Each structure stands twice: as structure tokens, then as C-alpha cells.
Amino acid sequence: MNFSLPYKKISSLLELIKFSHTIFSFPFAIMSAFIAAGGMPTLRQLLLIAGALAMARSAAMSFNRIVDVDYDIKNPRTAYRVELQKKIGKKNVWIFTLVCTGLFILFAGLLSRLALYMSPLAILIIFGYSFTKRFTNLSHFVLGLALALSPVGAWIGIQGRFGITPFLLAFAVVLWTAGFDIIYACQDIEHDKKLDLYSLPKKIGLRWALVLSGILHFFMVLLLFIVPRYSDLGIIYLIGVCLAAVLLFYEHLLVKPKDLSKINTAFFYRKWHYKPGAYGGNAH
Question: Chain centroid to CA 87: how far?
Fold first, then answer.
């Protein structure tokens, strides 16, 4: 099967799945890997973990773009995704999804037998998330669960067994992810109402959604301060947690119920606008 796409299609594909954002899924997994190894993991282990993370995220994002196409086209914020898919070709997006899925399972198997056995469950969760907005307001937590697999998977990849520390980190990831996804979903309340999609901002309103997000991030920080009780982490880790807490506090100061204009700034994202006929979405 020929998967040799022209450069422009590859570029469009990477933009479609926001591949540059893959790096944001690394910190908790790498931290978990270092703790599991009791120091520096081998280069082979680090490369396999990074590869598995990148492939899992890429597969999940491309699958999401495929199954959400009917919703994305009706949302001005996401309509550019459909234009990008047209340029790439739906068949090519499917091929990319399947290749990434296969590579994820391969990398997991090369890490440990337990990681291989757990990989189908991971695929089920990360693919299943794409359907949750159709029937539950808790989709934000399912997204958190999907990302929370990374520290658990990294730990299993190193030690070949479960432990308390990776699950503490995973719980922190669930709270962190759900908190910022709730904020991000505040932009789509009217869109969700129109298409009968589910979200907590739509259910409880902007003000209480932002309050809930703050509460989740508060408990996430508390949980990170508990982690050293179960692992050998020192002052550098605690400084990192304090820095994360400051950044989260700043994020919540920026976003207000009556002013969502700084959401992209809060997440350090550039704002993307849809312009028909011009690559699908241009960065500004």
C-alpha cells in the first residue's frame, strides 16, 4: 500500500492532528519512567516510550478528526479541519491512523509483555473518547483518562508491573486535563447546544464550569505534592510543582465568564482561524 504523500499533504496531516502539541503529553510519562527506573532509563526505553506516546496520540487525534467531521464542519473554530482532510484525503487519514495504531502496539510490546497486553485497552479508551460528547457531560474526564494512560504505560514499560506512583500521577493527569478541557469547552457552548452535544460548561454554565476547573487544578497540585511520599523525589521536583501551580493560577486569572478571549493565551496556543481556500486554517 503506497503511503508516500507529497510534502504538502504530510504538512497538512501534521497540522490536522496538531503534532507539535505531542510534546505536552511527555512530562508525566517521562517523570514516571525516571521514577520507575530509579534514575536514568536506557536510551532504548526512552525512545520506545516517546515513540509509543507519539503514535498513540497521533492515532487518537486522526481518528477523532475522522469521526467528528460532521460536527467540525458546523463549528467555525474547527471547520478548517474538514478542509485539511479534503486536501489529505480521507483514505490517507485512515491509513495514517492504522499505521500509528500498529506502531503503538509494536513499541508497547518491545517495552514489556504487560505493556503489550494493556495496549488494546489503551486504544479502546483513546478512540472511545471521540464518541463521548454524544452522550455524556463527563467527556472531559474521559479525555483525562486517555492522557493519564501515559504515566502508567511508561511505568509498566520500565518495570513490567503496576505501582502506586504511576496511578497517583495518572490521577493528577485526569484532574489537570479535565480542568483545562472544561475551560476550552467554554468556547463551544452555543455550538454544543445547536448540535445537541454534551459538555459541563453547557450543563452548569460558564461561571460554575470555570469554578469547577479551578477546583480540579487545585486538587491536582495537592496530589502532586503527595507523590514524593511514594518515590524518591527531591527539591527540584517540588520547585517544578510550585511553578506548575503558579502557571495554573495565572491561567485561571486570564479566563473569566464574561471574557473568553484569552483562552488561547492561557494555554500558550496561537489562535487559528478558518479561511476557505487558504490551507484550511492559517496561523495568526
Answer: 24
Q: Residue holding cell 501515559? A: 150
**Residue type present at position 172:** A
- d(C-alpha 281, C-alpha 284), whole Å: 10
What is this structure's pTM? 0.85
Cβ atoms of 81 and 16 closer than 8 Å = yes
Q: Which residues of 258-274 are buried (b: 16+ CB within 10 A; e: fewer)?
A: eebeebeebbeeeebeb
Tens-digit pLDDT profile for residues 15-69: 888 887 788 778 899 999 999 998 899 999 999 999 999 999 999 999 999 999 9
CB 145 within 8 A of CB 79: no
Evaluate if residue 262 carries a pLDDT over 80.
Answer: no
- Which of 114, 112, 119, 103 is closest to 44 using CA atoms? 112
Q: Which residues contact 58 (CB under 8 A, 6 or more apart)?
A: 17, 19, 22, 96, 100
Residue type, 216: L
C-beta separation of 227 from 169 below 8 A: yes
Helix runs in 133-228, H state only: 139-159, 164-185, 189-195, 200-204, 206-226
Please measure the distance between the N-terminal and C-terminal CA atoms of the chain and give it in whole angstroms.
37
- The span from the CA of 206 to the CA of 189, in Å, is 9
Give the containing element (helix H, strand E) for 7.
helix 7-16
DSSP string, 240-284: HHHHHHHHHHHHHHH-BTTB-TTHHHHTTPPPEE--TTTTS-EE-
